[in-house]
Each structure stands twice: as structure tokens, then as C-alpha cells.
Design a protein that fits this description.
single chain, about 190 residues, alpha+beta, 4-stranded antiparallel sheet, about 30% strand, elongated, disordered N terminus
Amino acid sequence: MFWMECGKMNMIKPQNLKNVGYTNLYIKNLEQSVTEDTLWEMFSPFGNITSLVVLRDFNGNSKGFGFVNFEKPEEAKNAEHSLHQTQLGSKVLYVARAQNKLEREIELQEERKQIQQHQGLNNVYVKHINEDVDEDRLKNYFEQYGEVISVKIMRNKKGTSRGFGFVCFSNPLEAEQAIRYLNGKY
């Protein structure tokens, strides 16, 4: 994303994208019955709407989301803050700044990175867990190697331990240390 200032072209850094004034809102969790008129009635008290659309498939059925574009950034922000998480029919609306493809990709990459951090290299598979060991006991045992974020012992439908589980550490070094000291010891 780029912006012009005094004839110079400057790149907006991804971390600053949320601070840029915006007028376009993305609305999701719309029921099939929600029309453009419904959204107009709901959003028009916040300012001048320059465009509004509920996205539809080739049969004319709502896809469950839409966009509302305001004339001024403060109007969009007020609508977002007031209408996000509000009930419309049987659903709770999600209202947020509309993002372009680059912004969505950057955000998704960051989310994937966080998930990998917590579930990938930080997650230790533990097998041969005795039936009498619960999550608290397993967590206490592994805390000597670092900060334990979560512990999960896999159980069958009756709630009996299946003999294996996972311990998630706050960073990969702690997980590696636990593996190094405990692998094959018990």
C-alpha cells in the first residue's frame, strides 16, 4: 500500500496500517434476510454513506457479508465501535475496517506464525502416561524445564486416559530442553 505526499511516494509499513484513516467497513455474520436497506438503516445514523453492498452469489443469495463506505474516517470509526458485536436478528455482527488483500495476507501470516510458535516447535508429544496422571500433575512435572502454556492428555469417550498427550512450552528452547532431558528416560 502506498500514499503520496508532496510528490514523494512512501511505503506504509504493515504495523502502521491500522493507524491510517479508513472509511470502508467490512460487516460479516449477516443473516440471509439482511438487505442493503437493512444495513442502510443501521449504519446511516453514523454519517454520510457513499456506498453500501451486501455480497451475493450468482443466484442472488446473500453470502453473509457486506461493506459500508462512509464519507469521513471518524464516521466509520464511530459506526465500527458502536455496532461491532451487536445483535442483528439471531446473529452477532462482526464490524471492522475493511482490509485489502495485502493487509489480510500480512495478518494471516502473523496469525500462522503465532500458531506455529505455540503448536509447532513449542509442543512436546508425551507418550506412556499412566492412567492416574492428570493434566495438573503432568504440568507440574514439566514446569522444571520452562514455562508451560498448556497441557492436554488425550482421553477416550469415557474420559479415560489414552496414555499420551501434549505439553506446550512458551518457547522452543524450553521444549527442546525437556525433550533432551526426558526422552527415553521413563
